[in-house]
Amino acid sequence: MQEDVILAELIWGLGTSHVPSIGAAMDNHKTEEPYWKPLFDGYAPAREWMAQHKPDVAIIVYNDHANAMDLGMTPMFTIGTAAKYNVADEGWGSRKVPPVIGHPELSEHLLVNLVDDGFDMTVCQELDVDHGLTVPLSVYCPDPGTAWPCAVVPILVNVLQYPQPTAARCLALGEALGKAIRSYPEDIKVAVFGTGGMSHQLAGARAGLINEKFDRMFLEAIETDPAALTALTREDYIREAGSEGIELIMWLVMRGAIGSDIHRVHEAYHVPASNTATALALFETVPSNGAKNA
């Protein structure tokens, strides 16, 4: 009699902005100030739900901001395989948050499967992680104490240097990632974060750009029609969402991973936060039997 194989379960996906000032607001106890309170009030329902549905591992898709890598070497897709990731000093000291603990075994499994599926991943066996990763972790868990509540596998996407990967390639990476997670032979719960955005531009003639109409369209389509977002070129994203708004392609990695059977738990949208439109979209995966995750 063949025994059932125990495999990992992908339980939810989170799209969230990773604006560094969000982390600073938490670190400096400003979340109840009038400027910040609407943003953090919008996070509250998602945080409450996520606290009841804790993953063992979070896969966080983000971009380095020239802290671990400079523009002299910009891989298209990168995965971390370390047991520990220190918090980067971004010029004003490291955030006072715990170091990030990795999951080398899952990282190795994902790496092999992604390469076998045609994604030539760059591998980082050492990596300092910046606000692109630590701010989303703080959005999930605002009070980690001495340790974050889950291990982390970092996946980095080039959104800084032309040519960035296409939106379609990011969705396909997510689909391969989801398949790889679900084939991992261990009884663990996994969440996937897609980070960055929404519309913003930090420099140039359009500095301060916010395009709420585009942002609202993206928030709807990321749930109901992610394929429509892959029809947008990198130039479309930059024109509509700003030079940094192209970070939204990283949400498509998360969306591809969680699959088609999902339920939206919560959504929030707020401007401004450091001249950036900020958003959160939380999706629960629905098991094949149709029941919600316990």
UniProtKB/TrEMBL annotation:
<dbReference type="InterPro" id="IPR004183">
    <property type="entry name" value="Xdiol_dOase_suB"/>
</dbReference>
<feature type="domain" description="Extradiol ring-cleavage dioxygenase class III enzyme subunit B">
    <location>
        <begin position="15"/>
        <end position="277"/>
    </location>
</feature>
<dbReference type="Pfam" id="PF02900">
    <property type="entry name" value="LigB"/>
</dbReference>
<dbReference type="GO" id="GO:0008198">
    <property type="term" value="F:ferrous iron binding"/>
</dbReference>
<keyword id="KW-0223">Dioxygenase</keyword>
<dbReference type="GO" id="GO:0018579">
    <property type="term" value="F:protocatechuate 4,5-dioxygenase activity"/>
</dbReference>
<keyword id="KW-0560">Oxidoreductase</keyword>
<protein>
    <submittedName>
        <fullName>Protocatechuate 4,5-dioxygenase beta chain</fullName>
        <ecNumber>1.13.11.8</ecNumber>
    </submittedName>
</protein>
